[in-house]
Structure formats: structure tokens, C-alpha cells
Design a protein that fits this description.
This protein is of the alpha/beta class and 315 residues long. The chain contains eleven helices and twelve strands. A twelve-stranded mixed beta sheet has the order 7-8-9-6-5-4-3-2-1-10-11-12. The two termini are 22 Å apart.
Length: 315
């Protein structure tokens, strides 16, 4: 499947729910949550993935909200892992429930996991997330690695005057735990933190790392928006700059929201309703054309004029 520029799209991100067991200040909004009936069922998700595979999708990532708060995720994984043509299934989580579920997820067919973790300071973690304990996430990270859900990637949203002073701590965390840490620019969101006040460019993060570590740029399988480096000591770090650096030419993904709308881009207002088509009994061919059209609507630059609801889009 190719977009309007001829670039291949083979990666599908599916948000399972807009609910979360944390209340992160830059993400959480107090609006009404989707009811169970408004969410795509697991059967509907499986059908959409099957159609997407027929268009050339080879990798699927399950996101949220927090995907592990939706009951039966391991059952969905087991069903998806049996689909011919699907080469990789991964998951993004805040890690709170990961120690409990890592073994089941691995057994069901999960290959890799990304963990959102913005601070290694317990008090700061409590302030940023509103609930939960840092030790639960660290235990989940360790368990995921022990179960072989590798490479484990830790996603760090860098916030000015909040966690920018922890950059070197996270590099050491990467080295000590043999995992990847990716520093991500804060995007305008519906959360409580004003973007203009807390935005911090990753170019300054990279400069800070360079003061203390030698870095060798490397290629990482799967493509995507991150620039990766191996630092002395064996750690792998990445930099994702959605605000200061357009990486649309490297974007190989589309998204399906928890209520069943396909979006060409995280920052796009445009979407097409797949759930309605499914529940009206439309044939796979009609669903396929909607997905294909969404891909053709991918922009040559990502728009972030409006604040994004990460829980509703699948960040």
C-alpha cells in the first residue's frame, strides 16, 4: 500500500481504548469516555487487521489510552498472531500492569513492547501521573525484558523544567538495563500542561548527551521517525522530533482510533469511519477502499495546529 508520494505504508497502530489507569498531566483530559458499545469489538479489530494485511500491512501495534486496562487483550493478541501475513505485533503501555501481563502477552504472540516513562524520580512520577508508583513501571520493564519482549523501548517525553535534567540519568538507564530509550518532543495536547511553556527541543537533548557520551548513529529495523545512536557502554538512544523536524517522508503508518476511525496521521483532523461500515455489513472490498483512501490522504507535512487527544487517537 502506497501513499500519494509513492511511499510504502506497512504499519498499523490500533488504539484499543481511550481509558487509562494514569492521569498524566500532558495527556489526560476529563471529557466523557467511550462506552463499551462505542469501542471496536475484538472481532471487528481482527477483521480490520485482516483487510489491512491484504493491502500490505505487515506490522501492528496496539495502543491506548492504556491497552492493558481493556480485558482480554491477550485473547486478541492470540487471534491476531494467527493471521497469515502479519509479521510483527507490538504494544505501547505505561507499564503499570506489565509485570502482571508480560508472560501472558508473550505467550499470546506479542513480540515487542514500548513503555512510556518520563521520569526516574518517584516523587516527580507521582506528580506527573497523578497515581501509580514508579516501582510498578520499573518492575514491568524488568519483567518484559525477562520474558523476551525485546527490544524493550522506553519513551520519554521531554518537558522543560520538569525532566530535562534527567536526560543523562536515562542514558545510563539504557546502558545499565540493555534497552532503548527514546527522547520525544512534547506535542500540543489536550492535557493540563501548556505546550508553549513546557516544550523542549530534542536538539538540545542530543547536545546534552554529546557532552558526556560518544554517539554512533545506527540503523534500526522497522524504520519510523526516530534517529538512533549507540552510546559508549552499549546503550541505544533515539530522538523523535515531531515539532522541529518533519519526518513525514519516513512515515510508514496509519492509525485506527478506539471508536473505529482510520486516520492518516496523528496530527490530522481527517478520518474515515470504519466501524459504521462494519456494522452496516459492508463487504471487505468497501472497507479496503476506505483504508486505501486514508493512506492517499497522508500529508507531506504533519499538522499540529490543534491539540491532540493522545488517548483517543493512540499516541
Amino acid at each position: 500500500m502506497r501513499d500519494s508520494r509513492g511511499e510504502g505504508v506497512e504499519y498499523l497502530r490500533i488504539s484499543l481504548t481511550d481509558r487509562c489507569n494514569l492521569r498524566c498531566l500532558y495527556c489526560y483530559s476529563h471529557g466523557n469516555k467511550l462506552s463499551r458499545e462505542e469501542l471496536l469489538s475484538f472481532e471487528e479489530i481482527e477483521r480490520l487487521v485482516r483487510v489491512a494485511i491484504s493491502l500490505g500491512i505487515r506490522r501492528v501495534r496496539l495502543t491506548g489510552g492504556e491497552p492493558l486496562v481493556r480485558k482480554g487483550v491477550e485473547k486478541l493478541l492470540a487471534r491476531l498472531s494467527l493471521l497469515p501475513g502479519l509479521e510483527d505485533i507490538s504494544l505501547t503501555t505505561n507499564g503499570i500492569l506489565l509485570a502482571k501481563f508480560a508472560g501472558k502477552l508473550k505467550e499470546a504472540g506479542l513480540r515487542r513492547v514500548n513503555i512510556s516513562l518520563d521520569t526516574l524520580n518517584p516523587a516527580k512520577f507521582q506528580w506527573l501521573t497523578g497515581r501509580g508508583r514508579l516501582e510498578e513501571v520499573l518492575r514491568g520493564t524488568e519483567e518484559a525484558s525477562g520474558q523476551g519482549l525485546n527490544p524493550v523501548k522506553v519513551n520519554v517525553v521531554v518537558l522543560r523544567n520538569v525532566n530535562q535534567d534527567e536526560v543523562i540519568d536515562f542514558v545510563r538507564f539504557s546502558i545499565e538495563n540493555r534497552l532503548s530509550v527514546r527522547f520525544i518532543e512534547f506535542m500540543p495536547s489536550v492535557g493540563l500542561l501548556p505546550w508553549e511553556k513546557f516544550f523542549f527541543p530534542v536538539s538540545l537533548v542530543k547536545k546534552e548527551v554529546g557532552k558526556y557520551f560518544s554517539m554512533e548513529e545506527i540503523e534500526v529495523e522497522g524504520g519510523g521517525p526516530a534517529e538512533y545512536y549507540r552510546v559508549e557502554g552499549g546503550g541505544i538512544i533515539g530522538f523523535i522530533a515531531p515539532i522541529t523536524c518533519s519526518f513525514c517522508s519516513r512515515c510508514n503508518r496509519i492509525r485506527i482510533t478506539p471508536e473505529g476511525r482510520v486516520k492518516p496521521c496523528l496530527g490530522s483532523d481527517y478520518s474515515l469511519d470504519l466501524k459504521g461500515a462494519l456494522r452496516r455489513g459492508e463487504e471487505d472490498g468497501a472497507i479496503r477502499e476506505k483504508m486505501r483512501y486514508a493512506v492517499l490522504c497522508k500529508s507531506s507535512s504533519h499538522p499540529f495546529e490543534k491539540r491532540v487527544s493522545f488517548a483517543r487517537v493512540g499516541g
